[in-house]
TrEMBL record:
Superkingdom of the organism of origin: Eukaryota
The protein, known as: Aquaporin
Taxonomic path: Eukaryota, Metazoa, Chordata, Craniata, Vertebrata
Family indicated by similarity: Belongs to the MIP/aquaporin (TC 1.A.8) family. AQP11/AQP12 subfamily.
Molecular function in Gene Ontology: channel activity
Stretch list, region Disordered: 272-305
Signal peptide, first to last residue: 1-20
Gene3D superfamilies reported for this sequence: Glycerol uptake facilitator protein
CC per GO annotation: cytoplasm; membrane
Pfam families documented for this protein: MIP (PF00230)
């Protein structure tokens, strides 16, 4: 249990330091610089450092610490709750940043700045976490430090199947984000945390269920067993394809690229009465035609959420 206590202290210290960095940058920086860069860096550091420590517990905990899968899944759920409650709107996920761009919610320069911030934050977390392991504060950290040069890859299946798994995980994750984006945080955060835990349980044995391109680069791209191109196919192509499909099926279009609904049937905002036409009904039909022409994006999208 000493190793688990050290890891819990690591999680607490990481979240506390990142929260302090967020508050300081929010007070000192302009709002645009904070939203597009500073909070994304802090969020990426927090997410990546906690993920690296969790990955260490998953790999070494069962045989070196006696940790069961129930403990590890509970830890994943609790960390997901903490991330959802503390990231202050940061995604720390390039796929989510690109989703916001495709939804026409943010500009291209802001999206590019977020991607750079996320990459810098992930790499900073990788360096700092390895230095923390080098301090050998627990037996698990000692073992991880000795085995760091020979890490095991997170991809434990074929490249094609791994791509499908990551794509499916990303699809359900982004679909949930789109469906819950207008819900209060008290409902949205636990639902997303539960979904992340379920995907970690079902897809973890195959790909570790990252559905986050930057996080996958930080955790597993340096491990032997697969080429960079194979890793990119699984952890970049899969999640980005799942994200695009989620936006397309939820919206019926990609708002950044298309104004017209591509999937769902258009319907008029006004209903015309059936039966013999009179002068009044002809006026109503004219108004209905004008209303439908003014709202080309309105669709009967089945309200699947």
């Amino acid at each position: 249990m000493a190793g688990l206590n050290v890891s819990l202290s690591f999680f607490l210290a990481t979240c506390a330091l990142c929260e302090a960095a967020r508050r300081a940058s929010k007070a000192l920086l302009p709002a645009g610089a904070y939203a597009s860069f500073a909070r994304e860096v802090a969020g990426a550091v927090q997410l990546a450092a906690c993920c690296l420590e969790t990955q260490m517990l998953v790999e070494l905990g069962p045989w070196a610490g006696g940790f069961g899968p129930d403990l590890l899944l509970t830890l994943v759920f609790l960390l997901s709750l903490v991330h959802g409650a503390t990231l202050d709107g940061a995604s720390a996920n390039p796929a989510v940043a690109l989703q916001e761009f495709l939804m026409a919610e943010v500009s291209l320069p802001s999206t590019l700045l977020k991607l750079v911030a996320q990459g810098l934050g992930m790499q900073a977390a990788y360096i700092l976490t390895r230095r923390c392991w080098a301090l050998e504060l627990s037996d698990l950290h000692l073992l991880q430090s000795l085995m760091a040069a020979h890490c095991s890859p997170a991809l434990r299946t074929s490249v094609l199947w791994g791509t499908l798994v990551e794509g499916a995980c990303a699809f359900f994750f982004h679909w949930a984000l789109l469906c819950l984006r207008h819900r209060p945080p008290g409902h949205r955060v636990p639902a997303i945390a539960l979904l992340v835990t379920v995907t970690a349980y079902t897809a973890g044995p195959y790909t570790s269920a990252f559905f986050n391109p930057a996080l996958a680069v930080c955790v597993t791209f340096q491990c032997s067993g697969h080429t960079w191109l194979e890793y990119a196919q699984v952890y970049w192509l899969g999640p980005l394809t799942g994200m695009v499909l989620a936006v397309l099926l939820h919206q019926g279009r990609l708002p950044r690229l298309f104004q017209r609904n591509l999937l769902y049937r258009q319907k008029s905002k006004f209903r015309t009465p059936k039966g013999k036409l009179t002068s009044g009904s002809e006026d109503a039909r004219t108004l209905a035609a004008e209303g439908s022409s003014q709202e080309p994006g309105h669709s009967s999208a089945l309200h699947l959420c």
